[in-house]
Design goal:
Elements (H helix, E strand, L loop, with lengths): L2 H4 L3 H4 L3 E10 L9 E11 L5 E10 L10 H7 L13 H19 L3 E6 L2 H14 L7 E8 H9 L4 H7 L12 H21 L20
Parallel strand pairs: 1-4, 4-5
Antiparallel strand pairs: 1-2, 2-3
Helix pairs in contact: 6-8
């Protein structure tokens, strides 16, 4: 009997990777020059039956780093006032340190080896996180250096949608467009979407990979 059939655990499910759902709100599109304004992080857990679900949450408003660019068009889109004192914002470095501590704890508890960022259009969030880690001097951060799980790609495969709101609705999740473009709301919805997609794959018989006939297809183009 394979390890997958003996015990379904989070570290077995994703090749010892610890999935961490992240969304950022920014003051532009350039991770090297534009300010990171908000970040939310959701960790996941797996029950004894192999179903994944949301576990813990971190959420921070971020003070723009010194010398960063802030584009009015981005602020008009996400409705963030970076200099509003009621934001209770913290420095980028403080946020990154707390996130690293939070994620490393989850890695240790689940016996995983490395965290992997889960995000919608993941490279955007990944680039901003990596840039912030670099500015904060955190070379030993817990995230995989180049692998991500992109829910936009997964949703395109499973339900034919790549926009977060449409993908959520396609899998039966309620999505409030009035709360969209908040890092907190978008991270929670991305986590819900990822769990739905992964659990649906299990429901369909694709996990654990015990039925080899499930993966066979006659629609293979021969060379």
């Amino acid at each position: 009997m394979s390890n997958y059939q003996e015990k379904q655990t989070l570290n077995n499910r994703f090749r010892n990777f610890y999935p961490v759902v992240i969304d950022v709100e920014t003051a532009g599109f350039n991770a090297q020059t534009d300010a990171l304004l908000e970040i939310a992080v959701v960790t996941l857990t797996m029950d004894e039956q192999g179903w994944i679900k949301k576990e813990s949450l971190l959420h921070f408003h971020i003070i723009p780093f010194k010398g960063s660019s802030i584009h009015p068009s981005s602020l008009a889109f996400n409705k963030i006032d970076p200099f509003n004192p009621l934001r209770s914002a913290i420095s980028e470095t403080e946020a990154m340190n707390q996130i690293c501590k939070f994620v490393k704890k989850g890695i240790e508890e689940t016996k995983c080896k490395k965290a992997i960022i889960v995000a919608h259009n993941a490279m955007f969030d990944y680039n901003f996180i990596m840039a912030a880690m670099h500015r904060s001097g955190l070379q030993n951060h817990p995230f995989h250096p180049f692998v991500t799980f992109d829910t936009a790609s997964l949703s395109g495969l499973v339900v034919g949608q790549t926009v977060l709101a449409k993908a959520c609705k396609a899998v039966g999740l309620v999505f409030d467009i009035n709360q969209a473009h908040s890092a907190l709301y978008d991270t929670l919805q991305t986590a819900n979407l990822f769990c739905e997609l992964v659990n649906k794959w299990k429901t369909l018989g694709g996990w654990p990979p015990k039925n080899t006939n499930f993966y066979k297809t006659n629609n293979v183009i021969q060379p």
